[in-house]
Prior knowledge:
Elements lengths: L1 H30 L32 H5 L2 H18 L1 H4 L5 H19 L4 H28 L12 H27 L13 E3 L10 E3 L6 H30 L9 H13 L1 H13 L1 H13 L3 H10 L1 H24 L16
Antiparallel strand pairs: 1-2
Helix pairs in contact: 3-6, 5-6, 5-7, 6-7, 6-11, 7-8, 8-11, 8-12, 8-13, 9-13, 10-13, 11-12
Amino acid sequence: MCSSTFISKTCLAFSFLLYFVGMDLLLYFRVQDYDVRPSTNDSQASPYHSPILCDLNPICTVTVKAMTLDHPNHYILSPLASLTDYLLGISRSWTWLTPNAISFSHVVVAVIGARYVTRSSLFHRRVGVVLFQVRAWLDNLDGHVARTRLNVKGERSDVGSIGYLVDGVCDGLGCIALTVAVFIFLKRNTNHRGGYERLPIRTISSSSLSPHSTVSSTSFWRSPLYNILMMGLHFCLTSIAWNRYISVYQDLLESDVPSMISRKDLYDRQTIVFRSSSFWTIALAWKIFNFHAMMDYMLLAIFLDRIWEYVRFAWLQLPTVLFLLILISEFHYTYTYEKILSVNDSLRYSSYTLTYP
């Protein structure tokens, strides 16, 4: 029975992995034939014929944010949100339902899901994981409804708007709810199965023989509180960095940057950078290590009953990856900014060969 369950989980995980890799390959080839900015004759490099409605196709309209969005959100939850809106006509008919109201609703779902995550029953914790996926789907739905009503195509961040701030606050509250729930679970299940036996045990100190004996615990750095605080800090830094690079790359590649060069030359340079292997590599790295991806990994650890292992890994290993990714992204953005806006630099490209790295 256990062997059959393990095989089923392995097959399911492999199927999702295969799907995500396949979609990434399709996205890569789509980017190589895509003009991130409209060309002067209002035509793309070659027409793209989507087999389904473009709103339901995650690779139809390519944007900076779409390229850096985590795999479950980009390839599963976002198309499901678009399909729901298409079938129910939320954007067109449900005028009483605002995107901000949807944002607030997924905070409620997150709180309910967090309550289940604190339970000792693995089944209940898995119910909590499902509820957090519903929360993520609602997060996609509010963005889709907002963009549809504003006639904005593709995934984009409207940095500085009220909706952007509300969505960010609601995402933060959902993350806090999950983090607190994991902390409560670890506190309640110290020294139990599933790897939690490596949590510290409260023991009598060597001074217990004296009249003024005290109770101390194993080193604080191994305590649930410290590890959860470090993991929460990592989530926070990841969110700030990810949103920063979405914002600066959107401004650089998807807007009319003030410059001394002609508009046609600007569009050509933006397209070259967008199609370059260096930008693709950075975007893919953020796709794997962004804030929502960290939440996905945490939920997967809860589902597999390996919470403590993930908590320790998240703050011991992943910060190194985060700081390295920030360093590379900052260097690439600075270099790209100068390349795009340089008056004397001539960027040349053909349909299949790019001079930009």
